[in-house]
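@channel sequence for tomorrow's demo:
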Amino acid sequence: MKLTKTLLATTALTVTAGAVVAEDMAMEMTLVSWGGSYQASQDKAYVQPYLAANPGLKVTWDESSGEAVAKLRAMDETGNVTWDLVDVVASDSMRLCDEGLAVELDADTDLAAAPDGTPASEDFGDLLVSDCFAPQIVYSTTFGYRTDMVGDNAPTDICAIFDMDAYPGKRALQKRPIDNMEWALYCDGVEKSAIYDTLGTPEGVDKALAKLDTIKDQVVWWTAGAETPQLLADGEVVMGSTFNGRLFSAIAEQNQPIGMLWDMQSFDLDGWIVPANLPADRKARVMDFLKFATDTQRLADQAKYISYGPARKSSAPLVGKHAELGIEMAPHMPTDPANASNVHIYDYEWWADNRDDLDAKFQAWLAK
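structure tokens (generated this afternoon):
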């Protein structure tokens, strides 16, 4: 897994500025992301500076990244691609690339070099996991819990999610097999190094689903990253999985009574893909924005608003304090040594090969 080498629906939000720019570039652009605090960090770090430099451009956000593969397949079938740039996880970028639904990129041509001249291919390094993928962040899926609902017994082990005696109450889990299947096998005694070999067998799938069966009737299933922080804030769940940056926002920005469980946090990558078959003027606009939005400064700027690690090596030294709270961001990153003593390295290549099959089995299990 390449990541180990480097580590450590639609919303109405529209932004407009005023005048005319190059005639060969479209004056409207639809960006697709995940909503919430993550999308807000992208808007502050990438979009607003780009709009300031490109008067007259209109940018519309769509929050459908969780359905990106299915929707891009449908758009391709109808010949009507309405999205211009799409934020996806690494494994989805591989599937879209393999199916010809995303444009292949030349990192050293399409992405900006580092300030010292280091080519983008070297600056991003092993995080360029797909020919169609422009990485933005390293993030993790991990757990938050209500501090007032666990009292003096704050969970420190991922397997607390299966311990209904010590932690009674509802749990929130993402409505997909990814991460849930791995955590289930791990908490059923499978060594981390054997998780994907085990999950690659019918018996391993059954084993994972059987473990999830033990808490199934206590699970609230979520599809959007903002849901778990809200469920925790409302006291509807005692613990729940979500993206570490969403929990950071709830804890540091909103002062919610929420704690972080970093054990077996699942590392992953997020980045942009350009849909295939865009008209020339829309593609020209997107490629211009893509080079701007993934440069060294822009990725460092995003880390000032949310606790995700920038994907470029040259960006890391530029990450300092939160732009609004004034707190140091490094201790809140998933890659900080204090948070990364026992991590799960999500195998995006394995999931790219097996996702459709496991999705079908998982959805069938949910329906029982």
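heads up for whoever presents: Residues 1-22 have pLDDT under 50 and may be disordered.
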